[in-house]
Design goal:
Blueprint (H helix, E strand, L loop, with lengths): L1 E5 L6 H12 L3 E3 H10 L3 H12 L5 H12 L8 E4 L5 H13 L6 E6 L2 H10 E4 L5 E3 L18 E2 L6 H15 L1 H8 L3 E5 L4 H12 L2
Parallel strand pairs: 1-3, 1-4, 2-3, 4-8
Antiparallel strand pairs: 5-6, 5-7
This protein binds adenosine-5'-diphosphate (2 copies) and zinc ion (ZN).
The site of one adenosine-5'-diphosphate (ADP) has 21 residues, from helix 1, helix 6, strand 6 and helix 9.
Length: about 210
């Protein structure tokens, strides 16, 4: 099962992708998580990516595509995978289509988690992230058991630097300019499915399961 999660920053892609990965036993591949892990470990890639991420801009396609192609070529991806945060531009989508075509494969589902801009700023300012294990929470909609402490690993949870309102506005405009055209791209490939991302998390997941099958 090969799945792409589409949607604005904060739409709930990561939240849903984690549940999809658990239920269908496929890896969850988040480019944002990969970049953040590289930043934490002080790698060359991390240094380069951070400059863009802090601005709310996209990391250049050259730094992003190879990384994902290498990841999906690994053994654990043989049964499928769920991509979260990739592709984010038309050239990235084309690189993915071409790489899979070469081995006689194709993506099967592009799930657009649809949330209007009005809801996004609230979602982002309430998001808390664990930079140790990648878990995400929301202070109102999905709080940690103990304030500021990750349920999964016990590390501190933080408001990501790029989730502050100024940067969120910039990320939203980048989304509309560069990522939203992918909705049409995947509609034309006949794999686009849309879910209403304003519903509670569990309801969104039920809608996704209805698409993917039990
Ligand atoms: P969100 O889940 O809120 O959309 P992500 O964790 O996916 O945020 O991404 C955080 C940042 O990482 C993005 O704003 C961008 O700078 C960078 N990034 C992640 N994925 C990509 C990608 N496929 N192409 C370019 N930049 C990316
Ligand atoms: P994305 O990966 O698209 O950037 P996340 O999955 O990290 O989005 O979700 C953004 C924030 O909104 C998180 O704080 C998350 O807990 C919260 N959230 C996710 N889905 C919902 C939902 N259906 N209703 C309310 N809050 C949600
Ligand atoms: Zn954690």
């Amino acid at each position: 099962m090969k799945i792409i999660m589409l949607g604005a920053p904060g739409a709930g892609k990561g939240t849903q992708a984690k549940q999809i990965a658990a239920k269908y036993e496929i890896p969850h591949i988040s480019t944002g998580d990969i970049f953040r892990a590289n930043i934490k470990n002080g790698t060359e890639l991390g240094k380069k990516a951070k400059a863009y991420m802090d601005q709310g801009a996209l990391v250049p396609d050259e730094l992003t595509c190879d990384l994902v192609m290498d990841r999906i070529a690994q053994d654990d991806c043989a049964k499928g995978f769920v991509l979260d945060g990739f592709p984010r531009t038309i050239p990235q989508a084309e690189a993915l289509t071409n790489a899979l075509n070469k081995i006689g494969q194709a993506m099967e589902y592009a799930i657009d988690v649809d949330v209007p801009d009005e809801n996004i700023v609230n979602r982002m300012s309430g998001r808390r992230a664990c930079l140790n294990c990648g878990a995400t929470y929301h202070i109102v909609f999905n709080p940690t058991k103990e304030e500021g402490v990750c349920d999964a690993c016990g590390n501190q949870t933080v408001l990501r630097e790029d989730d502050k309102p100024e940067t969120v506005q910039k990320r939203l405009s980048v989304y509309h300019e560069q990522t939203q055209p992918l909705i049409n791209y995947y509609k034309e490939q006949n794999i686009l499915r849309t879910v209403d991302g304003t519903k509670p998390m569990d309801d969104v997941f039920s809608d996704i399961v209805a698409i993917l099958g039990e």
